[in-house]
Structures are given as C-alpha cells and as structure tokens.
Write a structure and sequence with these properties.
The chain is an alpha+beta fold. The protein is 15% helix and 33% strand. Belongs to the peptidase A1 family.
Length: 484
C-alpha cells in the first residue's frame, strides 16, 4: 500500500533554523531544512531523551509524587491551592463543564525554535509571555529579573517587582519539598534556621538545559470560552512556578516553559485541583512551517467538538500515576500495510518505569528503541523502489534523491496499540524534506542507550490530541489545526 506524496504542496519541514536563516527567509518558502540545523535539533532531542531516561532511572518523578503526598498530609498552614477568580458556577469545578480555559498555540519557527509556544499572561497587571509547551516535564518557569545567566528570548524578561501578585515561597513552606534544591553555587540550599529564606529550585532537562532560581506563586491569566462562544479572561491565582535567574539550554525565543506532565508541579495538575479527577486538556499542532500569524488552541477542560469527531480514536495510558510521563503501550508497527516482526519486549514498560513509550510535545521527531528502529528503517528501504538512496545526509536514514520527480510513492505508516487502537499518520508526518526539493528523509530515529520510545511533536502535526485524565486515555483525531 502506498500514499501519494506531492513535492509541490508538501510541507515536510523541521524548522530548527538559526536566527539568521529565519530573518533571511521569513517571507520565503520554508519547505527546506539546512543540514546543520537538522543535526542541531537531533542532538537536542537525543540529549533530552537521555535526560528523560535518567530521570526515570533515578526515580526523580516518583520522589516528587511521594513528596507531594507527604505535603498534603502535613499541616496546610502555608499552603494555598490555586483558585479561580472571579467566582465560577459550581459545575465549573465538578467536571460538568460549561466553559473552557483556552490558550493560543503556535509553532516556534518564527523564533528559531523547534517547539510549540503557548501564550500566557502572568502577573498583576498581566503581561504577555510565550512559553514552550512541554508534556514531558512538570515545572512551570519563566526567565526572571535579575537574569544573571539567561538565553535570548522574544520580549523583555519577567520582573517580579512589576507584579502585585508575586509571592515567594519560603523554605519553611511545605511546597518547597516539591522542588530539587540546587547546588551551593549559585544559590544556597534551604537552612532550617532561616525562616524567611526563599525556596530555591533547580530543574534539569539535559546536559545543557536547566533552570535555577526562586520558587514562587503568581497569578496566571488565560482566555475563557463561555457556553455562548464569547471570550473572556479568567484569573488563576497562587499558581506555583519557578522564577529563573540562571537558565541555559536550547529554549530559543521562548520566555520559559509551561509543564503539562502528570506530576504535582505541572500547570495541568494544578488545574486538576480545580476541575477534579475528570480534568482533561487537548491541543492541536499546526504545520511546523507556520509562522506566528498562524495559530491553534490549547484547551483545558472538556472539548465537546473533539469528542464529537467521528474520527476520534482512544488508547489507554499505562503505568502508574506516580510517573510524570504519559505512557502508551505499542503492540506493533505497520509499514505499507505489513505488520513488522518486532519483539514485544521492545515496547514493554518495566515495573521500575524503564522502557515503554511516551507521547511528548517537547521532543520533535519520533524515536524508537532498538531493535524497533532498525526493523522499521529496513522495512521502508525494502518497500521504496526506484529512487536513489542518498548516504551523506546524517543522521536521518534512509534519504532519497527525488530530483525532477513531481510525485513519488511512499509506504503508509501506522502504530497499533495493545488495546487495539490504531494511529495512522499522513506521509508528511513521517517524511521530511532536506535543504531542497531533491531529497526526502524518514523522520524517525533510534533512541540509543535508552529503552524509551517517544512519539514526538512532528508526528502530531494536524492531529487534535486529547489527554483524558478521567478515563486515563489518549485521544487523537486528524484535523486541520488552523481550523480548530
């Protein structure tokens, strides 16, 4: 079985461009990817995978959950959960949603980033910031004044002195147990006798990406869609976040990060305290080559339009709720209609939380653990005939010279989950153009030195993806995200 792949209308792009390339080509065709930039974003992805794997091995996620359980059992003298203001009708908190929290979502390509950005208003009075959307981590954080070591971002840094609602969390506050204490340099860890000392935090994403600063609470403002379709603003008070004074890594263009993982610090989990266990959220990633004028939505709360989509499929989340990550269980992979012979243990999630497959908005491509990747790659190479293989374009393989070909045929690709659900991808979600119309490559890689497999954001383009926490399942439906 094959799909028709038109090189005229194809939007197979991954846009980890340099800022210089962005400025030169902003109004031109974005359907190509420089070799160097491709290598850069793959290196970032692989570093992230190792960090996620290490986080599982060291049980950092489980420790965070256990700390949260202990915190709730202790005195709530200091604890103030997030609240919604102004007051909402009772059904707003019980799961019988009459409204939604909605935020604008766009590709970060215009800022030279490979992630997706969400618009959030922080502080009182509220100021606009663009944060990276990350379902693979928990902490919400933003670059803060004074910024002693910060990366370049679009717009000014957040200044807590400009906000009436900013409050530091002290070392004595039980919530301080939820974050990792940094090393003595730059800030000092908490000391028992220092009652007024601000709670320091440290959060790492990989060898070159981390944030360090003060743990605090602040007011976040997002859009509210009323039942009649009108838009209004909704204020969320006492949201825990990191005010980062030392930040480094490949967070190009963003002001910080909005964590949507399953751990207690994430924005999703803090909203769950309001919605209850029936809480859900959904997003739709526009095409990677879209500029900042093209956007979609991230919806917190019930998405009735998505639930009514006849093409909506579900697969169950697996693994305990003590994990930060959203695990799904793969049974098999199909290439050109053929179910590949991949050992089932390749997809297994151990009792210690090692291995398995996660869906992650913060990783770009899809990465399969060995031997799955090699088997998938060989299957594509076996089924694709009549095109010259290009060997020089690393790290993606296989790559094909399609010079002079207006339309080529590529095998279908899909994932079958253990509960019977199937996720079929359009060809533009698993093949990518490199530098010119003359070369296309498989946009799937292996995850070396890690048993973890990841379904990244490139494969999620133009799918409305639902995280249904009430029923512990992932939903996905093919849509044109610009129309959501």
């Amino acid at each position: 079985m094959v799909l028709k792949f038109s090189l005229i209308v194809v939007f197979l792009v991954f846009h980890f461009f340099t800022l210089e390339a962005i400025s030169k080509n902003h109004n031109n065709n974005h359907n190509v990817v420089p070799k160097k930039s491709l290598t850069d974003f793959v290196v970032r992805d692989l570093t992230r995978i190792q960090a996620l794997h290490k986080r599982v091995i060291e049980k950092k996620n489980q420790n965070s959950i256990s700390k949260w359980q202990k915190t709730k059992e202790e005195s709530n003298k200091f604890y103030k959960p997030p609240v919604v203001s102004p007051a909402a009708p009772p059904e707003y908190f019980t799961g019988n949603y009459s409204s939604q929290l909605v935020a604008t979502l766009e590709s970060g390509v215009s800022f030279g980033s490979g992630e997706y950005f969400i618009d959030v208003f922080i502080g009182t009075p509220p100021k606009h910031f663009s944060l990276i959307l990350d379902t693979g981590s928990d902490l919400n954080w933003i670059q803060c004044v004074p910024c002693y070591a910060c990366f370049d971002q679009n717009g000014p840094y957040y200044d807590p002195n400009d906000s009436f609602s900013f409050k530091n969390i002290s070392c004595r506050d039980s919530r301080c147990q939820l974050v990792s204490s940094p090393s003595p340099d730059p800030p000092q860890p908490c000391e028992a006798e220092e009652e007024s000392q601000v709670c320091p935090y440290f959060y790492w994403y990989g060898d070159s990406s981390n944030t360090t600063g003060d743990f605090a609470v602040e007011t976040f403002t997002v859009n509210l869609t009323k039942p009649n379709g009108e838009s209004d603003l909704k204020i969320l008070e006492n949201v825990m976040f990191g005010c980062g004074h030392w930040n480094r890594g490949l967070f190009r263009g963003a002001s910080g990060l909005l964590g949507l993982g399953r751990g207690p610090l994430s924005f999703a989990s803090q909203l769950r305290n309001l919605y209850g266990h029936s809480f859900s959220f959904s997003y739709c990633f526009v095409e990677r080559n879209s500029n900042s004028s093209v956007s979609s939505k991230l919806i917190f709360g019930e998405n009735k339009e998505l639930l009514g989509n006849p093409n909506l499929n579900f697969t169950s989340f697996v693994g305990g709720k003590e994990n930060t990550f959203y695990y799904v269980e793969i049974k098999s992979v199909m290439v050109g209609g053929e179910v590949l012979n991949i050992p089932q243990e390749t997809w297994s999630l151990s009792g210690e939380g090692v291995g398995g497959t996660i869906i992650d908005s913060g990783t770009t491509l899809t990465y399969f653990a060995e031997p799955a990747y090699e088997i998938i790659k060989e299957a594509f190479m076996k089924k694709i005939k009549g095109y010259e293989i290009v060997e020089s374009l690393l790290p993606l393989k296989p790559c094909y010279n399609v010079s002079g070909i207006e339309e080529m045929e590529l095998p279908e690709f899909g994932i079958m989950f253990s509960d019977g659900a199937v996720w079929d991808f359009p060809v533009e979600n698993y093949f990518i153009q490199i530098e010119s119309d003359e070369v296309v490559c498989l946009a799937i890689l292996g995850s070396p030195k890690s048993a973890l497999s990841i379904i990244g954001n490139y494969q999620q383009q133009n799918f409305n993806v639902l995280y249904d926490m009430k029923n512990s399942r992932l939903g996905y439906a093919p849509v044109k995200c610009t129309e959501v």
